[in-house]
Amino acid sequence: MIKLQNVSKNFAKTFILKDLNGTIKDECIYGLIGANGAGKSTLLRLISSIYSLDEGSITLDKEDVYDNPSLKQKIVFVPDELYFYPNYTLKDMANFRKALYPSFSTTDLESMAKILKLPLDRSLETFSKGERRQSAIILALATHAKYYLFDETFDGIDPVVRKTIKKMMAREMCDYHSTMLITSHNLRELEDICDYLGVLYEGKILFESEIDELKATRYKVQLSFNEPKTKKDFANLDIVSYEHKGKIDTLVLRGQEKDITKTLEKMHPVLMEYVPLTLEEIFIYEMEDLGYVFME
Amino acid sequence: MNYTILIDYQNRTPIYLQIVTKIEEHVALGVLKPNEQIPSIRELAITLGINPNTVKKAYEILEQKKVIHTISTKGTFISNNASQVLEDAIEKELLSLKEHISNLQKLGLSKEEIRRRIEKSK
Amino acid sequence: MYLWNKNYFIQNIKKARASLLLTFGFALLLNFLVVQMNLLETLSLGPILVNLDILSSFQIIAQFIVPVLLSLILFSFVYKKETIDFTLSLPLKKRTIFVTNTIGGLILIVIYQLLNTFLVWLLTTFFIPGITVGSMFFDYFLIFTISYFFVFTISNLALCLTGNKITTVIVILLLLLFMPFMKDITSCYENRHLTLTFPVEEQAKDHFIGNPYSDFIWGKDTAIPYNTLVTELTNNNQSSMSTLNYYQVIKTFVLSIVYIVLGVFLFNHKKFENYQTSFQNRHVHLLIKCLTVIPIGLLLGITMNFSGGHILEWYFLLALITIYYVLYDYITKKKVKNFALSSIYFAGCLLVILGYNLFFKTPRTIEYDYSQVKSIGMEWVSNYYRDAKDPIEIESESLKKKIYDLVTKEPVGKEQGLSFVFTMNDGRIVHTVISLSSEKFQEIVREIILDKSHVDYITNGFNGNHYAISYSSDLWTKDSRKDIYDLILKEKNNLVPSDYLNGKDDFITLYSYHDLQIESFLVPFKANSLLMKALVNYYNNETKMEFLTKKYENDSNLTLQYDTINKGSNEPKNIFILESHTLEVIDFLNKQDIKIDMSKPIIRLNFKVTGEAKDYFFFLNEEKVVELIQKLSK
Fold first, then answer.
1. Looking at the 3D structure of chain A, how many domains does it have?
2. Virtual CA dihedral for C90, C96, C101, C102, nearest 10 degrees?
3. Both A48 and A144 in a single domain?
4. Is residue A222 domain-shared with residue A193, that is, in the same domain?
5. Which residues of chain A are within 8 Å of residue C10 when distances are taken between CB atoms?
6. Residue A208 lies in a domain
7. DSSP C20-60
8. In the structure, what pLDDT confidence band is assigned to residue C223 with cuts at 50, 70 and 90?
9. Which chains pack against C, by 3+ Cβ pairs within 8 A?
């Protein structure tokens, strides 16, 4: 479990992360969404102990992560800008990782490379950008670490490769019970991979939730009544968002569909219609409910 | 095992629920027969490329519903009486529906009107 | 162990193997060529007695460049975001990374110096053979390994303070130049324009009291790279390596360890997120810039002043400093747009450099009186004595006063010169050369040689490891002529002080190497001694075989000179005739079977072939020479 407590980090006197709190449960795939410059990469670098905290603490399995080699052996960080030693091949990089991470398996790397059709003995500098990204991912997965930190790694990967990699990740999670933290500035990139999503905004994790739970408990309803209604009239419902335009009341509600329908019907609406709600919209409404205007 | 399920990630239905629904559907349609082996949690997770915890959740529901059962060394199987279990569930819903229809009739609607209004609203 | 990770080091080397090979390979090659050049230059003057200066001139400069490059290569990850991410996410403690690279760098430096020493050994043993001694190669290896390591640790320290490659080099320059050098540079300037003198009376005015700078002996409190470089740059006749001693070697090593410990601490606390910025605050940037300009300006100034003649005029120096000042901003990628502010700082620099020059260049005179004299030593002069790094300090107080009085009061004579080194109580050194009449010369030298200090030295001193012997312009190893060496030892053990005054006819020099210096000891002997006999037999045979029996068409590449070993009653007249009849002399010597009577006066002929280092000696009795002259004048 990754525990972030009151994490603060500043660069040149401006706070990128301030009093950030969060918990990433074991064996989940956690997606962290944030605008460019919101501090996602910084947070990952703090967790992988590249940077040091200004305040607060970050613990993995209750152990402090800073400058802790035995714990770092269980963490793999894949940064947004990839680096490989010059003229190294996949095989060379594998040997390098093997020397420093005891859990690394060269055979697993080779089989993953074969599936993705990545050559083992060609210099990584000759690979395309996509191939380099894939190489970084399989080098990471072959390490069989406990924690994976992917910084915008999955943005822009084509669907076929994406599917293959998702299968590899699933196998990894089954066999090694790992936890993954993935960042992106685009929710749509992570929807199909993660089971938890969190929003990093203004230096904090403002909102996080299990995706399935969100999907199952957020509903958008458009209602019309004979008499004009205000928000107070819906006080017995868990409201995310309320809008009154003309004669239409639009509500975004939390709860089970059955219960919501029952409650609304008791108010005898002239019109009651459930409007489709995307995950993205759910997030935007939730953020607004917290008082923030969520910018992509 | 070549069994796979098509998941719609854009759909607002949670993934685990889609798995439950799809498997139940396949059982009802006869695609999955009683005592037939289905992929283990691990296998299905890898095939679909999703978090095994999600598959685990789905299987737990199915197990609770007695649609499937797991024998630890052998694997996961469609229950002997799976279709029967489904039948039972359908019967239960129909019973509840009959009750609702009866209530509506008491409110003054005829069966025709009920049908018409149901089709109109959803 | 949490300080060394073999795998990380091997991978770091592997990834950088091209740059490392290039750097070290190039340095090895250049060093080889420079040493070769030095040897050839020395060879043109005669057989080579290899000393540390011949071997070191390239290393003295390279010690400031190669280790810096090594540091930039091993720690190259610090300068780019991607590489910082890569390296710091590895499961290694920060201090492990730092210490592994430090120890690894030391290993590479050791390997490099081993190779270097080996190549230089090859060069001086086989290619351009000279006389060498094993412990000198060891010292060569030791000194430069430690000085390279020292500069390397400073470079590593610098990168902990900055995240920009160029800024790192700048900070290294600062740490290397500003602090330690300033003291040395100050002393240089000061001594250059300082006149030390004694209250000299009118009649003694023409005795020479030397410029103290030329005798500036570097104190024990500098570390190796600095004094060797400054001595090299100031190009004074003093050998750069002669200023070293083992104390400095140890001190430099200890300082290196201190820098490593400091480096580990700073590296652990370094904020790697600020990897690109040169100093943000423009005042800091300008201040740092000026702090590097000043010592560079002063060092250039020293080179200018002391390299004899004005190679660089002041306006050229100004131009160089201005160019550096402007380029600095481009290199560190931080331009201070406020031209006025920049100019103010620049003016400040110039003021400091100028003020420094003016202040330390103002001629000053210090006049010492006798009470401030701590010790006096007689320096090597003529055939007396030895070429000592430290002249023997005279013990007798009355003798010391007498010498002081000679310098300040004795009328200048024209016949003989005598050189003394005065060490003052304040540590400064004054060289004097007094010109005396023959009688006065004899008188004072006699007294000096009979002083207890000198008697002790003659009887007990210089019993160290002799490794080379020189007789006139010839040079050989002790082991190659063991018989002659034994005879020399016999003579040495029977020496008394008066042997140095008169009574001996010729002398032979022993060399030993210890404490990083080559020292020599002259052993005088008589013409009728066994030693002389052995030398005569040896040389006459050798010269006959290797020189006389060869055919010479003409004497255009031959020269002939002569020395009298001991004079007979009649000095042969017209001896210069021999010089113009070289071929006939050779002929004469070939035809005759020359027998030398050791009890009679002996003359030594020196044949020289142009282009060969070695002279060929042939000994003849004076009578034979007379006979030969008569023959030739017919």
1. 2
2. 170
3. yes
4. no
5. 99
6. no
7. HHHHHHHHHHHHHHHHHHHHHHHHTTSS-B--HHHHHHHHH
8. low
9. A
> B52 CB near a chain A CB, below 8 Å?
yes
A296 inside domain: no
Closest chain C residue to the Cα of A145, Cα to Cα: C91
| Residues C421, C431 contacting (CB under 8 angstroms) | yes
Same domain, C73 and C159: yes
C15 touches chain A (CB under 8 A): yes
C371 by DSSP, 3-state: which? helix
Long-range contacts of C266-271 (CB under 8 A, 24+ apart): C266/C157, C266/C160, C266/C161, C267/C94, C267/C95, C267/C97, C267/C98, C267/C160, C268/A67, C268/C94, C268/C95, C268/C98, C270/C160, C271/A51, C271/A52
Number of domains forming the structure of chain B: 2
Instruction: State the residue range of the domain holding B71.
Output: 15-81
**Pair (C377, C393) in one structural domain:** yes
Same domain for C428 and C565, yes or no, is no
Same domain membership, residue C534 and residue C515: no
Secondary structure (DSSP) of C146-196: HHHHHHHHHHHHHHHH-SSHHHHHHHHHIIIIIHHHHHHHHHHHHHHTEEE
Residues of C with Cβ-Cβ distance to A69 under 8 angstroms: 2, 91-93, 96
Structure tokens at C206: 């023409």
Tell me the pLDDT of chain A (296 aa) as tens digits.
999 999 999 887 788 888 899 999 999 999 999 888 788 999 999 999 999 888 999 999 888 988 889 999 999 999 988 999 888 999 999 999 999 999 999 999 999 999 999 999 999 999 999 999 999 999 999 999 999 999 998 888 888 999 999 999 999 999 999 999 999 988 888 888 888 999 888 888 888 888 888 888 889 999 888 888 888 888 888 888 888 888 888 889 888 888 888 888 888 888 888 888 888 888 888 888 887 765 55
A–B interface: beta-carbon pairs under 8 A: 58
Closest-CA residue to B73 (of B30, B45, B105, B40): B40
| Cα–Cα dist C564/C157, whole Å | 64
* Cβ–Cβ contact A158 with C under 8 A: no
Tokens standing for C52? 């540390």
Tokens representing C97 are: 């990374």
Within this chain, do residues B20 and B77 fall inside the same structural domain, yes or no?
A: yes
Do B12 and A277 count as a contact with CB atoms less than 8 A apart?
A: yes
Question: What domain range includes position A145?
Answer: 2-202
B61 touches chain A (CB under 8 A): no
Q: How far apart are CA C568 and CA C623, in angstroms?
A: 9
Q: How far is C279 from chain A (nearest CA, A)?
A: 12
Q: Do chains A and C touch (3 or more CB pairs under 8 A)?
A: yes
The pLDDT value given to residue B5? 87
Write out the two tokens for C411: 């009328």
* Tens-digit pLDDT profile for residues C361-398: 677 788 888 888 888 888 755 555 555 556 778 888 99
* B51/A28 CB distance under 8 A: yes
Contact list in A for residue C76 (CB cut-off 8 A) is none
- Is residue B45 less than 8 Å (CB to CB) from chain A? yes
Cβ–Cβ gap C93/A77 under 8 Å: no
Check: CB of residue B69 under 8 Å from CB of residue B79.
yes
| CB-based contact B46 A167, cutoff 8 Å | yes
Chain A residues touching residue B14 (CB < 8 angstroms): 211-213, 215-216
Does any CB of chain A come closer than 8 Å to the CB of residue B21?
no
- How many whole angstroms separate alpha carbon A57 and alpha carbon A47? 10
Domain that holds residue C627: 530-633
**What is the β-pairing status of strands C208-209 and C429-436?**
antiparallel
Q: Is residue C441 within 8 Å of residue C420, measured between CB atoms?
A: no
C93: which chain A residues are within 8 Å (Cβ-Cβ)?
A: 67, 69
CA–CA gap between residue A57 and residue A39 (Å, rounded): 16
